[in-house]
Amino acid sequence: MTLPRPVTLPRPHRLDLLIALSGLVGGLVLWSFGLYLTRDHVFGQRWAVLVPLCAMAGAEALRRAAPRTALVAAALAIAGDQLTSGNLATLLMFTDVVYASVVYGTPAAARRVPYVTGLLTVTFTVVLLVWWENAAALVIGALIGTVSFLPAVTGSIVRNHREAAEAARLRAEQTALLAEMDRTQAVVAERARMARELHDMVANHLSAIAIHSTAALSLDDPATTRQALTVIRENSVAGLAEMRRLIGLLRRSGEDTEPAAAPTLAGLDALIAQAGANGGPGGLSFVLDDARERAAGLPAPVELAAYRIVQESLTNALKHAAPGEVRVVLAREAGALTVEVTSPYGERPGPTAPGSGAGLVGMRERTSLLGGVLGAGPVTDGGGRKLWRVRAELPVDASDEERT
Q: Between β-strands 284-290 and 373-380, what pairing exists: parallel, antiparallel or unpaired?
């Protein structure tokens, strides 16, 4: 057997209790001095006016905790007050309860109360006009509207302003949250871009330094050691220059400076030559096969992505490729630039450099930003040799090509 839940009464607000107590004390003062609203009444007892006064004070105490209950109790109290001599404090507290029922009540009640009080005002005015056939009925109707309809309209206006202010506050918070999310995403994207640029610019030089330094330590040949040290010095100087350029760009990011020139496919010949100079210890040779009909007319982002993909592929070949030929092929196919780099796949006899996998991640990110496709993995050529192939298809928009 389940026991019924105990009925919990709403707890009045402290300010509402103070308002109710003030109204009750004011009404008692008026009653003690014999100040009434009218002398014509049904109940002639002097204490009868205190009953609706106390009931109205109780309704006033619940104006915020239970607006609907307070309005019903206030309506009964004001109706009972009309049967007595009447008290001004009871009337004033009734107007406040009507106002509070709209401000603190449910949205449905806030919409209904002004219509109901307006309809009651018009109804009472028409009934009194028909009954009395006197213009005094209009005065009575105006008084009824003043104590019922006007407080309800005032409460509706105040509620609408509060809701508009709350909506504006929520929109401001959402805007601030979205701005913070955009800022966070921008920071993450910028950090990823900086990581890609740093890896692409420096990894090639550091890989060559690692390979040639290993060769110099492992081979007891003065000529080989001298050649390795020469390559190490050239790559270290170039790597330092790239680092200084990147640091300079970061320091000048807030100044009005011209953007630095991004590498293009026109620099692939120099990149291939540098890779050939660095590939001595691994027995690698590098070949560039540019099968494009014309070299110009590519958007800058496409050229930069293609250059970085070739650069990273050559770096990976220097680190891991077996002796043989590394071939770079560029072609235009159906509105896309195709970049393909193949290198011998197998065990490398000479020194190697460790890899972190960040290069492939960077190439995929660059290709994905342009809406292209990247594939990397072992393949077999027509002669049965195993190759490692990196193939990227970078879309080229026709409108961008014409503007370029």
A: unpaired
In angstroms, the CA 107 to CA 159 distance is 10
Mapped onto helix, strand or coil, the DSSP state of residue 394 is strand
Task: Give the separation between CA 300 and CA 264, rounded to whole angstroms.
Answer: 8
Inform me whether the pLDDT recorded for 181 exceeds 60: yes
How many C-beta neighbours within 10 Å does residue 113 have?
Answer: 25
CA distance linking residue 305 with residue 203, whole number of Å: 16
pTM exceeds 0.85 for this model? no
d(CA 52, CA 167): 40
Separation of alpha carbons 334 and 332, rounded Å = 7
Burial class (CB in 10 A: 0-12, 13-18, 19+), 235: buried
Torsion of CA 366, 309, 336, 189, to 10 degrees: 10
Query: Please, is 199 exposed, middle or buried when counting C-beta atoms within 10 Å of its C-beta (0-12, 13-18, 19+)?
Result: buried
> Which strand (E) or helix (H) includes residue 343?
strand 336-344
Buried b or exposed e, range 171-185, using 16+ CB within 10 angstroms? eeeeeeeeeeeeeee
Residues 341/389, Cβ–Cβ less than 8 Å = yes
Q: Which two tokens stand for residue 188?
A: 């993450």
Strands 324-333 and 284-290: parallel
The CB-side HSE value for 4 (13 A sphere, CA atoms) comes to 3
Reported as a pLDDT band with limits 50, 70 and 90, residue 111 is very high
Please say if the pLDDT value at position 403 is more than 50. no
The 10s digit of each residue's pLDDT in 323-373 is 888 889 998 877 888 999 998 887 765 555 555 567 788 888 888 888 889
Helix residue spans in 104-221 (DSSP H): 107-132, 136-144, 150-218
Q: Does the structure show a pLDDT above 50 at 381?
A: yes
